[in-house]
Amino acid sequence: MNVLALYRYPVKSMLGEELDAFELDGAGVVGDREFALLDAGDGRVATAKQPRHWRALLQCRSTGSGPAAQVTLPDGRTLPAASAAGPLSELLGRQVVVSGARPDGAVVERPDAEAVLAAGLDAEIDAPLLEIAQGTEGGRFVDHSPVHLISTATLDALGVDALRYRPNIVVATPAGTPAFVENDWLGRTVTIGGVTLVPTLPTPRCVVPTLEHGDTPRAPEALRGPAQRNRVEVEGFGVLPCAGCYARVEVPGTVRRGDAVQVTAS
C-alpha cells in the first residue's frame, strides 16, 4: 500500500487543497481545520452537516495555513481567512465570526443524514448537538480524531470520489482488497514513512458527501452506499453508516505522496 493523495482543509466545511506532503503533529495535519466559522448568535461551529444553514460553505475553497490562510468565495474573490467574516456572512445569510481556536466544548448541529435526504436539505428536522474533536487535543476543528484515512478499495467499491469524504490521506490498496478494509485497521498501527498512526474509530458518514462540492453535483449514493453496505458500531455513537477511519498520531513527522503504508498489529 502507498499514499495516493494528501488533503488539507484549512477552514472547516470548505473545500481544501491537495498537497504533495504535509506535517503531522500530535493534533493532526498542521494547518488542517485550523479555522472555522462560528454562528455569532449561538456560538455553534458552522458545518455543512447542517445543510439548511451552511451548505454554501462547500462553494468556498480554503488554502494555506496560519496568517497565509486564504478563502476563495464563489464569485472568485480571495480573502485572508482571518478577515473573511463579513463576505461569508453575506454569502450564508447568517452572521458569523472566524475563529482560529476551538472553544472548549465546541458543538455542531448534526441531523440524521438519511432523514435529511428523505425530507430535503431545507427541511426543519431534529438536529442534535455533537461535541467535536472528542479524540483530539489542541484547538483544531476536526470532527473527532486528528487524522482521517480512506482506502481506494472503499472508494472504488462505492464509486465515489475521495473529495466527497474529505479525507486527509487516501491509501492506495492492492487489487482484491475488500471494501471497508479500514474497519480492520482499528486498534492496529499504521506506519507511513516515519509517522505512526493508530486508527481509533470508523468514520461515520453525514450528509456532507451527498452535497454539491463546488461545481460537483449532488450525489445521494455517497451516503446510501455506506448505509447499505457498512453500518458498524462506532464506540460512543451507536451503529452508523461508515467509510474510512479516524486515527490518532502516535509518532509525528512528514507524510509524502507515494510513501509506503504498512498496517501491523499493535
Automatic annotation (TrEMBL):
Domain MOSC: 123-264
InterPro entries noted in UniProt: MoCF_Sase_C, MOCOS_middle, Pyrv_Knase-like_insert_dom_sf
Entry protein name: MOSC domain-containing protein
Organism (species): Pseudonocardia kongjuensis
Tree of life domain: Bacteria
SUPFAM superfamilies: PK beta-barrel domain-like
